[in-house]
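Final report, results section. Input specification for complex C-07:
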Amino acid sequence: MINRYSGVPAYRQVADDIRARINSGEYGPGDKLPSEREMVDAYGVSRPTVRDAIGLLRSQGIVTAEHGKGVFVRRLPPVTRLSTERLSRASREANQAAFLGDAATGGFKATSATRVYFEPAVARIADVLGVEPGTEVCVRDRVMNRNDMPVQLAVSRLPRSLTTGTAIEQENPGPGGVYARLEEAGHRFAHFTETVSARMPTPDETSALRLATGTPVITVTRVAYTTTGAAVEVNDMVMVADRFELVYEIPAD
Amino acid sequence: MINRYSGVPAYRQVADDIRARINSGEYGPGDKLPSEREMVDAYGVSRPTVRDAIGLLRSQGIVTAEHGKGVFVRRLPPVTRLSTERLSRASREANQAAFLGDAATGGFKATSATRVYFEPAVARIADVLGVEPGTEVCVRDRVMNRNDMPVQLAVSRLPRSLTTGTAIEQENPGPGGVYARLEEAGHRFAHFTETVSARMPTPDETSALRLATGTPVITVTRVAYTTTGAAVEVNDMVMVADRFELVYEIPAD
DNA sequence: CTGGATAACTCGTCCTTACCAGTTATCTGT
DNA sequence: ACAGATAACTGGTAAGGACGAGTTATCCAG
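Structure output:
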């Protein structure tokens, strides 16, 4: 099964063979692969070599290993499509919060845990919000769950001058969420910008989102602007990449 | 240096220590880490353990290894910000193509290689374009380079009924690119949708984009709609995640 | 001074061996 | 019949050895 003189490393040949079997459907999503020891016999290589092959497939996000159980072909998790409509006034009036409404439409149980605290603005935040560095900001730090699995982190920062005395400084900001409270206070939103990128998670994110190796995260930084041109919120979001799709609509002119 | 009884695996402790030294600035971007053998002595562990630690940092995208040279702290590559303005008519009239214009503004040498061919539309493409499955489509398959390094793949598909006899079927579609040729032919764009996600690259993408392990890719599927409501193009893009930022502007209503 | 061989480094691959740590099915005593 | 110990699986961690292959500095011959 393994060609020793092809120039292709043995562990790669094993990984390629397993990947081909997965792509051919021989092993379907959720199926258990043969155990490492069985592969040792099947391919005629040592266990570290088999483990190197499996490690490669894990880093490619193709399989996941479960200690004591086995190695499994990764299931495609249900994907949440986040469209820009979630930021419209209409949906704000209908739902408790953007995230909860989004998830509910997908038929999932959505929950979230929120911590609220205050801190001086670092340079980047101060710059975007147009305040002096060190100005106190209200921080809303949230973990969003879908069916009790964490899928998204969101850290939202607003100048405290806008939040004192409002429900925004409560863990539950009430129906329509933070944006609804801001509009009630007379701040009318003009537009939002979202800056999207992706990277591998930090160790903190790996544990907070319970990520398997080989799962990247999507980072979205949203800035909310009011009709006066002021930026009133910076929201840094981190989402498990294989659980989200972001849909943006762009007018031609 | 390594605590054998902490319950934390040795390779993890080594990785954590190296990561901490990088974060503290002891090793800066581009710096060479101590060699594996030096780490074996420094931490008092075996070479496989050191390699496991380095493998972890590689899968996290923190370091890259170069055969014969050493292991280096990854440099943050220059990031290209892609704003939605790239799709405006104005920029189309100014530039040869969206990508080339974007990169040029960043001060990079941008080049691209294009292959054009024809194929029957698969179900997904036919569905989006609103044609019968199997209808022939024009495929523009491009590799975009920045300073001679590939950074993006793009596969664009259009119904051949719109492209026959136009420069769109040429490798170089002329000034303003494909979109300019479509507008000349009387197709006026109304809006675009972009669906953004991220994942680990396939082996093909890893070699085409010369990716180091631990680098995810951003996938963007763009669909172009004309004022008649018809979808005229589906563009599947794959970008090296650490080289791009996508900026979207969202009106509040 | 120059050019090329070489030695000494680097990481990459692969093996054998051993034990630890979760999971699960089976077996056994009540 | 049930509960709990246990045996037999699973992957996870770690050691040590050997050799291959790419890179670079050095040194010597011309």
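Residues 10-23 of chain B form the longest helix (14 residues). Chain B is about 30% helix and 35% strand. This concludes the modelling results for the funded period.
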